[in-house]
């Protein structure tokens, strides 16, 4: 039986509510009692209260912080009109305006937008679209996807199939997932910013060449089976915060062109300035055929995602047997979410060029002391992403508590303690995050 309503929230939650990748009888969660700016007001399971900078931006989406006046206003104004209508046979201003904004800022000539209700669903749509595209081009036998190890694209079934099949989170479902074609994980790279603010990528060319040869060989071997190449550009997120060189994305673009495949880029985590470019594909000067976006799209206020395509792809779908993209979520193009997304994009367009590099410079400086810890194997920063990698799995509970005592909320995983903070963090906030991570890692892992 659940605890009575008068009991502490965390106790009522435990055993009642499933949390991501956590058992029902797992540790009691921290209760959020308020959120404003970049800070969370938390109550620990033992009753202790904490005010902490959210170094996670609520899993990378709350880039403008909490209770942002512009986003609050957009939500209130749309609520006063209508919060939701079906998108079948109807349209509305927030959706059309958002589609216009997205196609205007997208990398390459994107001309069509399909709205979905989560990032994972947008990947499902992109994969389904790729199959329809190949069928429309007279190649219905092309039913598989080429991707790379180390990737993560969501938790629904088609999306799971293009996640890493061995080291990913979905190895429990091998018999249920479509079997895709996996190239090796791209070699690691590092973006170096010189004192005069020039940037250059460093990678091992001796690793890049055999990787590219393996990708080309796999594509040639499976050319009659493949519909598309699917990849997170430059930064693999939940698969390990792995940074790889833009040259790899250019190889994948070339392979897609050579074998008449679509290039699908998953910009759900990397879009809207997170890596130091508005979209991570721009590091490689690559224009995709299909792009998935989500997370920061609404600034973390509401769940919304989108799939963008080129005119070439849209024309092929229109000429196909069904003439339509065969998907239609109930909450597709939710007006409230679209209205907030429009306001969020205005904020992103006005701030990301300055804020992401600023956050990155501060993370580079203040995470550096972690390099002196015996337990740390690597420190890497890309845009507004900072990663401390350990030589062993992170003691998540202890590191979380240690960081909270230092005023920082983190959510480590695997062997990584990382941050993707809100762009609106002040310099002092970023220093606090970095110092909190270094201090917590030192305290727990030495």
From TrEMBL:
Q: Name one Pfam family in it.
A: Aminotran_3
Needed cofactors: pyridoxal 5'-phosphate
Positions of modified residues (N6-(pyridoxal phosphate)lysine) = 295
Task: Name the enzyme group at the top EC level.
Answer: transferase
Catalyzed reactions:
(8S)-8-amino-7-oxononanoate + S-adenosyl-L-methionine = S-adenosyl-4-methylsulfanyl-2-oxobutanoate + (7R,8S)-7,8-diammoniononanoate
- State the UniProt keywords alphabetically: Aminotransferase, Biotin biosynthesis, Cytoplasm, Pyridoxal phosphate, S-adenosyl-L-methionine, Transferase
- What InterPro entries is this protein classified in? Aminotrans_3 (IPR005814), Aminotrans_3_PPA_site (IPR049704), BioA (IPR005815), PyrdxlP-dep_Trfase (IPR015424), PyrdxlP-dep_Trfase_major (IPR015421), PyrdxlP-dep_Trfase_small (IPR015422)
Compartment(s) of residence: Cytoplasm
Q: In which pathway does it act?
A: Cofactor biosynthesis; biotin biosynthesis; 7,8-diaminononanoate from 8-amino-7-oxononanoate (SAM route): step 1/1
Q: Please list the residues that bind substrate.
A: 59, 152, 295, 328, 411
Q: Site (Participates in the substrate recognition with KAPA and in a stacking interaction with the adenine ring of SAM): give the residues.
A: 21
Q: What SUPFAM superfamilies would the database entry show?
A: PLP-dependent transferases
Where does the source fall among the domains of life? Bacteria
Q: What is its main location?
A: cytoplasm
- This enzyme's EC code(s): 2.6.1.62
The positions annotated for binding pyridoxal 5'-phosphate are 119-120, 266, 329-330
Protein family per UniProt: Belongs to the class-III pyridoxal-phosphate-dependent aminotransferase family. BioA subfamily.
Q: What does this protein do?
A: Catalyzes the transfer of the alpha-amino group from S-adenosyl-L-methionine (SAM) to 7-keto-8-aminopelargonic acid (KAPA) to form 7,8-diaminopelargonic acid (DAPA). It is the only aminotransferase known to utilize SAM as an amino donor.
- Quaternary structure (record): Homodimer.
Q: Which NCBIfam families match?
A: bioA, PRK05964.1
Q: Which HAMAP family match?
A: BioA
Name listed for the protein in its UniProt record: Adenosylmethionine-8-amino-7-oxononanoate aminotransferase
What organism is this sequence from?
Answer: Terrabacter terrae
Gene name of this polypeptide: bioA
């Amino acid at each position: 039986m659940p605890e009575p309503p008068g009991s502490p929230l965390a106790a009522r939650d435990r055993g009642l509510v499933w949390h991501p990748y956590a058992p029902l009888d797992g540790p009691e969660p921290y209760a959020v009692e308020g959120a404003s700016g970049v800070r969370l007001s938390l109550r620990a399971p033992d009753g202790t209260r904490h005010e902490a900078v959210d170094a996670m931006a609520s899993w990378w989406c709350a880039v403008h912080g909490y209770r942002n006046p512009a986003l609050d206003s957009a939500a209130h104004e749309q609520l006063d009109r209508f919060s939701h209508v079906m998108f079948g046979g109807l349209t509305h201003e927030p959706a059309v305006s958002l589609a216009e904004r997205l196609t205007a800022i997208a990398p390459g000539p994107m001309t069509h937008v399909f709205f979905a209700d989560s990032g994972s669903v947008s990947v499902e749509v992109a994969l389904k679209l790729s199959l329809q595209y190949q069928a429309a081009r007279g190649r219905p036998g092309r039913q598989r996807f080429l991707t790379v190890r180390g990737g993560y694209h969501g938790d629904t079934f088609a999306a799971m199939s293009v996640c890493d099949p061995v080291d990913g989170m979905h190895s429990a479902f091998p018999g249920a997932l479509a079997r895709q074609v996996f190239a090796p994980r791209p070699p690691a790279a590092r973006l170096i910013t010189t004192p005069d603010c020039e940037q250059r990528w460093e990678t091992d060319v001796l690793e890049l060449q055999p990787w590219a040869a393996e990708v080309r060989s796999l594509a040639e071997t499976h050319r009659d089976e493949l519909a598309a190449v699917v990849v997170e550009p430059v930064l693999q997120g939940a698969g390990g915060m792995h940074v790889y060189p833009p040259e790899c994305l250019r190889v994948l673009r070339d392979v897609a062109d050579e074998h008449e495949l679509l290039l699908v880029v998953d910009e759900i985590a990397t879009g809207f300035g997170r890596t130091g470019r508005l979209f991570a594909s721009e590091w490689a000067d690559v224009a995709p055929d299909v792009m998935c976006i989500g997370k920061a799209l609404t600034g973390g206020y509401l769940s919304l995602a989108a799939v963008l395509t080129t005119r070439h792809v849209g024309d092929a779908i229109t000429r196909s047997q069904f003439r339509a993209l065969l998907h239609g979520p109930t909450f597709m193009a939710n007006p409230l979410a679209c209205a907030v997304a429009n306001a969020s994009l205005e904020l992103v367009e006005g701030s990301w060029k300055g804020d992401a590099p600023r956050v990155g410079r501060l993370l580079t400086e203040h995470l550096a002391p972690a390099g002196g810890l015996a337990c740390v194997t690597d420190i890497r920063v890309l845009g507004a992403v900072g990663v401390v990698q350990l030589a062993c799995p992170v003691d998540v509970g202890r590191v979380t508590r240690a960081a909270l005592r230092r005023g920082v909320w983190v959510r480590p995983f695997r062997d990584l303690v990382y941050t993707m903070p809100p762009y609106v963090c002040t310099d002092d906030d970023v220093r606090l995050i970095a110092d909190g991570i270094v201090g917590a890692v030192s305290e727990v892992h030495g």
